[in-house]
Amino acid sequence: MSSTETATLSVPGANLSYTVRGSGPVLLLIHGGNGDANVYAGIAEHLAERYTVVTYDRRGYSRSKLDNAAKEYSLETHSEDIHRLLTELTCEPAYVFGSSAGAIIGLELACHYPGQIHTLIAHEPPLTHLLSGDEQVHARHIQENLEITAQREGIVPAIRQFATLLGLDQSNGSSGRPNVEQLERLLANMNYFVMREAPAIRRHTLDLETLKTVWNGASMRIVIGGGRASYGTFPYQCAVALARQLGLEIVEFPGNHLGYVHQSQEFAMRLHIALQD
């Protein structure tokens, strides 16, 4: 098992809790709205044989507390956090993997700090503005219904309904029954995702022209990924649409939107291959 070190980094408005495993080139993993750094524990252990794997709780999630919880949510602020974290850890361009909201944040980092990225893998970024016709209407309905259900019935029913519509196992990747502290953290993360992050993601528009411009002028690689079991879901459709916009072929990964949780060994190997292609 690889050595593990946990530390914190003070950034404007928050303190980021992060964990470093292994040795080699830096590989930063950005989680989505389904938990915190712990969702990557499985693939991090496999990848730490080849990389210095960095996982962290994004601001507002679990151990990365906000100074002002009422401050307006900003995806750009999350990308600024990564910029500061990578600056703290390495002077070399890093490998970056982000899934779901984490993929959008990784793309924002690429727009603003392309020199910090060696290779970015964006796994199923839910950029519904890239869809058209019935696909976009369906995706926006699912997103909006998440917020409506939360307001009418509560956070947990909303998350369950959302997960069912995406065909997801609702496990958060932890084993056994959560203790009181873990349960409180899980519920707080759900609330932050549904009430703060999800509306911002639904409204967000990726600046494709900026992304294309910096990508063409930088040495970074961009890979767009989708789960083999996600075909037909709106995050997969968004990944396909983004790949098409960038003139890329979508790279398939094991499992669905949460393949890295439930098929961690296979997912880690596919991720390593994608980083080296």
TrEMBL record:
Classification via SUPFAM superfamilies: alpha/beta-Hydrolases
Pfam families according to UniProt: Abhydrolase_1 (PF00561)
Domain AB hydrolase-1: 25-166
GO molecular function: triacylglycerol lipase activity
Xref: InterPro entries: AB_hydrolase (IPR050471), AB_hydrolase_1 (IPR000073), AB_hydrolase_fold (IPR029058)
Keywords in alphabetical order: Hydrolase
Gene Ontology terms: biological process: glycerolipid catabolic process
Highest taxon, organism lineage: Bacteria
Name of this chain's protein: Alpha/beta fold hydrolase
Native source organism of the sequence: Paenibacillus piri
Upper lineage: Bacteria, Bacillati, Bacillota, Bacilli, Bacillales
